[in-house]
Every structure is written in structure tokens, then in C-alpha cells.
Amino acid sequence: EDVGGRIVLAIYAALVTSVGAFMAPAPSTFISRRTTSPIMATASPPAPAARKTPVFDEVCETTGVTLTRFMIEVAMLNPELSELPSLFSGIETACKAISNMVKRSQLTGDIGYAEGGGSINVQGEEQKTLDIMTNDVLKRALRFTGKLGVLASEEEDTPVDVEPTGKEVMFDETSKYVAVFDPLDGSSNVDAGIPTGTIFGIFDHDEECVVNDKDEGLTEAEMVCLTNTLKPGTDLIASGYCLYSSSCFFVMTVGCGVYGFTLDESIGEFVLTHPNIKIPETSKIYSFNEANLPQWDEPMRETVEKWRIGEGKSGNSFSSRYIGSMVGDVHRTLLYGGVFGYPSDKKNVNGKLRLLYEGAPMSYLMEQAGGLSTTGTKRVMEILPDEVHQRVPIVMGSKQDVQEVVDAYSAAGF
To answer: What is the CB neighbour count within 10 angstroms for residue 17?
Structure first.
């Protein structure tokens, strides 16, 4: 059975099991909403308050409500987001399909490197079989939502149009949103059963964007318009991730807090289990690849060394917890508190994580949960990408601990 056939079957299976979306049981447990607003990074000026903060009601705070019901309620309360549920439905379906593919990969043989090795993506990284398959799943699932014009992925050389038109097209000015994603974060560990995940971000489509459709050379401005993805995180409408681990989790924000859903395989639906997630303001955990510590900037290195021996500002002696999968490490950090990061070093002076579809979407979640996200000198959310696969140093997590890193860089004159 070919790979394409398995992808189609995986998506079909996810759709068939998605029952009960509109027949969610009556809410049984109500959890009151915390009234504190998300904390913005103090290291940089806050983002422009041009967009209205979405309004939620008690349905959005009720454990057990399905993701589909949740998004319908959000759209009813916020007409400007009325087209978002269709896009979320496509992402949700893709996550269910990918979850099944990851779980069954050892049985189906979808492991190891693509094409037996030698398949390289635009960033020079060798692709796993599941990298390519999960990228195709997301494209196929989003193609028919009718709400997506442009898509940028870690596994695509350039942004692509998701509508099948028979020719190479990167831009569709009739669709409302632009989606960016990392189809399978942590894929280098997937053959060992380590937690992996999918990261996504959603931007508004620029309806003022007009591109020359003749066979003529494009200006630099038109090329930027064509890709339609080079936007800072402050322009995100929504972001989130799916975590494939002991359970399949779907964690998201639309700009009014962070909400976590868990896949109930008995009904094929994501149900709300973590309403309005708030990260603790300080912690005793850090998540870094400490093998790189000697190569880090001096402020970063000294801060972590102080945390190790309890001489940081909190006075806590920190423990190290590092999975090596951004989704897994950030998920634990959101729930338990802590600091996750991949700082710049002498080998990767611009960092290693990609800004557009890893750094910005995860930073949006972190700030909405009350944490901070920085490069050490800049707020990650405010960085305008120069190109789709741009890398950036990242340190994110509990507010007070990340602020300690920012203060160390500032005191060192960075």
C-alpha cells in the first residue's frame, strides 16, 4: 500500500471517528474564569492594541465541552472569528490522523529516513518518513476548508497555495487566513517513541495584497506580498500545538487565554480538560541542551549556573528536565512552570528554532498563559521575519525566571 493511500485512509479514519461534535453532553462541571489578563513581556514594549480581545462565556470554561463546540461558541460571541472554526476543524482532523500514524508507525513501517536516506529539506536537515507524510496530511486536511490561502511549513521550500489549480501557485486572494506549521516537531526522536507534536500559527490574509499575475518579474515588494507569511507574532490570530504522547493533547489560543483539550478516543473528539492555563510565575525547572552550555553567551551561561546552585534571584536550586522535543518541553513548562530554551551559541549564532512556525506560535501561547518569551535582548513576538525559515534564539517560560535572563543580558550590555 503506497504512502498516499495510507495518508488518505488516516484522514478518513479521523473524520469517521469525529462523532458527537454537535451533540456534546450538557456541561457538568463549571470552572470559574480567572480575571487576571495575560501578562505581557516587560523586556519590550507591548504589542499595539489594534485587535479586539475575544470574548468568552461559561461554555468556554466548562470541562468536557468538545473543541468543535468550543470553537462554535467562540465564533458566535466573536463574529470577526466566524470563519476560524472551519480552519480549526481541518487542523483537528489532521492532528487525529497524525496521532494514529505516529502510534502505528512501528507496525506500518513508516520509520527511518525518507527514501532510505538522502531526502533533505530546505534547511539542510535529513527528512524522516513521517516528516513528509505528516506534512501531506496537514496540506490535504486544510485544502478543503475554503478558509486558507497560503501555507508555510518546515518541510516546504517556499510558501504554497493549498488550492489544487493545476499549476504552481503560492497565493490565493479569495481566502481569509495564512497558516504556518511544523508538521512533526521532534521527529528525530519518533522512532524511539519520544513525545512529538505539531505546531501551528494562523495569521489574517492581507486582502490589500495585489500581485502581478502576468508572466513578468515580480518586484521585491510583490514577492513579500506573494509569500504573505512574513509577519511578526503580534499579528497572530491564533496558535497552538498537538502533543502526541501518553494522550493526544490539543492546546490553543485565540488571544484570550490558553486552553488544553485531550483526545477522547471513545468518541473521537478533543474535550476540554485544561481551561485557561496559567503558568506559575517562578519555578525550579529548566529545559536546555546543557551540552551547549560552554558555547552560550556569557549572561545565559552565568544565569543557568546560578540556578543550578540556588544562587539565582528566586533562591531555588533548579533541576534539569529536557526531552529534546519543543512541544513536549513547552507543554510541561506551561503546566508545571519552568524555563525552556534554545539560546544562541558559537555554532548557532542565530539560534536553532525557526521563528515563523515554532518561535512565534509558541511565544503567543506562552504570553497568553502569563509567561514571557525572549531572545535575551528582544521580545520574540515582535521580531519581523526576513525569510520563511529564519532561525532565532529563544528562552521562554515562567515570568520571573525569564525576566532574570533578560536582566542579565541588559546588565552585560547586550
So the answer is: 17
Q: Which helix (H) or strand (E) holds 151?
A: strand 148-153
Q: Rounded to whole angstroms, what are the CA distances from 1 to 109, 127, 134, 282?
A: 11, 21, 17, 51
State which amino acid sits at residue 95: C
Neighbours of 349 (CB within 10 A): 11
Question: Which 3 state secondary structure label does DSSP give 193?
Answer: coil
Q: Please state the rounded mean pLDDT for residues 161-183.
A: 54
Is pLDDT at 152 greater than 60 in this prediction?
Answer: no
Res 3: pLDDT: 54
Q: Which residues contact 380 (CB under 8 A, 6 or more apart)?
A: 233, 355, 359, 360, 363, 373, 374, 392, 394, 396
pTM for the predicted model, two decimal places: 0.80
Q: What is the CB-side half-sphere exposure of residue 305 using CA atoms within 13 A?
A: 11
SS (H, E, C) 19-84: CCCCCCCCCCEECCCCCCCCCCCCCCCCCCCCCCCCCCCHHHHEECCEHHHHHHHHHHHCHHHCCH
Neighbours of 12 (CB within 10 A): 12
Q: What SS3 class is residue 216?
A: coil
In order of 63, 147, 163, 169, 228, the CA distances from 166 in angstroms are 45, 19, 9, 9, 21
Backbone angles phi, psi at 204, to 5 degrees: -70, 145
pLDDT tens sequence across 70-129: 999 999 999 999 889 988 999 999 999 999 999 988 887 666 564 454 445 555 555 677
CB atoms within 10 A of CB 259: 25
Task: Report how far residue 403's alpha carbon sits from residue 33's, in angstroms, rounded to the nearest whole number.
Answer: 26
